[in-house]
Write a structure and sequence with these properties.
Strands 1-2 form a two-stranded antiparallel ribbon. By secondary structure, it is of the alpha+beta class. The protein starts with a helix and ends with a helix.
Length: 98
């Protein structure tokens, strides 16, 4: 019944740590590799590198909500939202803001 999910290769959920700059400060973000792949796709659709996308996202979240208690969890949720809504959602939202 759950073979599709149980058969996921362990590499997909292995952790990968990347160093980026947020608000001018170096920090490390540790996510499962599959989330990094999704973030790469999202960033690419936005015409940004992953570090630039994450930095921009962090700045926008700070402006909207203030300090984020768990930014890594927020990134995982962003990935799930992107999978759930598809790439068109961000493009539609960007047009609404413009």
């Amino acid at each position: 019944m759950c073979h599709f999910f149980a058969s996921q290769h362990p590499d997909s959920y292995a952790f990968e740590t990347r160093s980026i700059r947020l608000n001018g400060q170096s920090t490390s973000i540790r996510l499962e590799k599959i989330f990094w792949r999704i973030l790469e796709q999202i960033a690419s659709r936005q015409g940004l590198s992953v570090p630039r996308f994450i930095s921009t996202l962090h700045g926008e979240v700070l402006n909207l909500w203030g300090e984020v208690a768990n930014f890594t969890s927020h990134l995982r949720c962003i990935c799930l939202v992107a999978l759930e809504t598809g790439p068109e959602a961000a493009e539609i939202d960007d047009r609404r803001v413009a």
